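Hey, quick one: can you model this chain's 3D structure?
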Amino acid sequence: MHEIPIRSFAVSVVVLRPAGSTFEVLLLKRTGTLAGTWCQVAGAIEANETAWQAGLREVEEETGLRPDRFYSADICEQFYEADRNAISLLPVFVGFAAEGATVRLNAEHSDFRWASFDEALQMVPFAGQRKVLKHVRDEFIGNEPNPWLLIQDTAPAGSAG
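Sure thing. Here's the predicted structure for all 161 residues.
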């Protein structure tokens, strides 16, 4: 019997910002692999880096944002990669950005959009992404985030967090 390898080498981050009485989701339009598709922040975990540290680094590298609060989403994005014959599991994190935060894209993306959850669910191409977005909406917007999932208060020292 041959087994399919399970790989966990990258992270996925859903970045949210306040929008009136609710929140919007940041989606990025990819260049390179999967060019033209909308996605949340994602990237590889580097040597000597925890998954959550990779998540914060990727958010900053890809968007220029530094979340005020950063949580484990308590879910993994999962998908099968036919070219590698492997199942990938990506821990998901949730970052809360300030209402007026400025996005600065790197070369991995050609565009960005702050979208409502309903819009984001229509924009992302994969069922796994939609499952993650629904989970985040239910657990982080529909309810107060579980304080045990808070990883780091990333607000600058001396500011209200």
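One thing worth noting: The radius of gyration is 15 Å.
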